[in-house]
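# step 3/5: fold
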Amino acid sequence: MTLSLRDRGSASAEFGVARPAPQIVVGVGIGARKAGSLSVRLQDAAADAARLAARGEPDRASGVVGSAVEGASATVEGSGDLICVTASANVVLSVVTVPVWAKSCALDGGL
C-alpha cells in the first residue's frame, strides 16, 4: 500500500479523535455506578423515614434521610392509610448533575 502526501498525518488525526472514547465510556460507567449506589442508599433511608413518620415521628424522618445521604432532602405526605416519604438528592457526574429520588410508604400508625 502506497501513501500519498495527502494522506500524511491521517493516522494521527484518527487516533486523536478516537483516544477520548474509552475515557468517556469509563467515566459514564463510574457515574452510573455512583448514581446507582446513591439510589439504593436513598431507598433505604426513605423506607426508614416512612416507618418513623408512620409511628408518629415525622420530624425525625428528614434527619434520617439527611444523615444517610449528604445533601438529601425528604418530603412526608399522607395518602389514606399510608404515610409516604420521598427522598431526593443530586449526583454530580463530572459535568452533569442528575437528580435521583426514591419513594417509600408505610401504614399509618404502624409498629
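# step 4/5: annotate
The CA atoms of residues 88 and 101 lie 4 Å apart.
# step 5/5: archive (pending)
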